Every structure is written in C-alpha cells, then in structure tokens.
Amino acid sequence: MKKIFALMVAMMLVVAFSGATFAEEKKAVEATTAAEEAKTAEPAKKAKKPSEKVKQVTGEVTAVDVKTNTVTVKHKKGDVTVEVTADTKITAGKETKTLADVMAGIKVTAKYFEQDGKNTAKSIDVKAAAKKEKKREKKEEPKK
Q: What top-level class would CATH report for the domain 55-129?
C-alpha cells in the first residue's frame, strides 16, 4: 500500500511540473511574438514621419503675411521666412497667441524644420517687450 501511495504522489508531481513547464514555454513563445511585432511596428512609424531636424532663429519680425501664413524673422545671418501651419504653437510666455498677434518689430524665437523646400514653423515664442520701453511709456503718461 505504501508503494502504491508513493507511486501516485510521484505521478502527481510529474504531471504538475510538466504542466508548469508547458505554461512557461507558451509564455515564452507569446513574448517572442510580441517582441517581433514591436520591431516591425517601429520601422513603420519611422517611415511615416520624415526626419525633422529642428532649427531655431531668434530676431525681430520684419514681415507678417496672414494670407500666406508666413512670418519673416531678421537675425544676424539674414532673413528667415517660416510658414505657420495649424500645428504651429504661438506663445507669449504661458499665453497662447495667434498669427494675428504677431506684428512687425517684435522679438521672437521661431523653431522650424525644412519640409518640401519650405521652412515650416513648429513653434513661435513672442518675447516680452523690453523693460526700457515700459519705463518710457510710464514717463510719457500725463501726471495728475
């Protein structure tokens, strides 16, 4: 009787461990399949998005054309004209602005990339007016 009991316990252990082994193999196969799918998905994402080397220009706005959605910025190396799209973020500090808020004569920093032979703006940051100009405005106000 003891031999039969020992034999049954041994058989149960074999079945238990073999079931666990098969489960681990199945998980390993699923993990390998998921990794292969991820590798094939990454090149597809890269193929969709063209390489964007972002450039930056800081200077004074010399021209704004609302009809063609372009802003021309004058800086040390010359003028750069960037096209403003719906994806372009125009900000002044933390405030969101529009192309209509950008005027000639103000300082901006524009981040852009070349696409189809055009400079497309990613973001335009309008710089705050100089403190000297604010002081001048206060002095010019009539005193009561």
A: mainly beta
Q: List the chain domain ranges.
A: 1-49, 55-129
Q: What is the pLDDT along the chain (144 residues), one digit of tens a residue?
A: 888 888 888 888 777 777 666 555 656 556 666 656 656 655 544 444 455 689 999 999 999 998 999 999 998 889 999 999 999 999 998 899 888 889 899 999 999 998 888 899 999 999 876 554 555 555 555 655
CA dihedral 33, 34, 37, 39 (to 10 degrees): -110
Cα(46)–Cα(130) distance, integer angstroms: 43
Judge contact between 141 and 133, C-beta under 8 A: no
